Amino acid sequence: MKEQLIKWMPVIALACFAAAVFMIADGYFWPGIVFIGAGTSLSSATAVYKKKKEINDLRKR
Predict the structure, then answer these.
(1) pLDDT at 1
(2) Contact, 19 vs 33, CB < 8 A?
């Protein structure tokens, strides 16, 4: 289950960024900012997980 979630996190982050753009364009500024924060945190969490996985793979060799 965890691997499936990690696989879809970049897609969810992109959807958050897209939702933020549309919300800000419609005049909902603060909810748009919340979606930008959510997309950023998902992107960084995905990057950290992938980097951690690469380091663990290198240690196993």
Answers:
(1) 64
(2) no
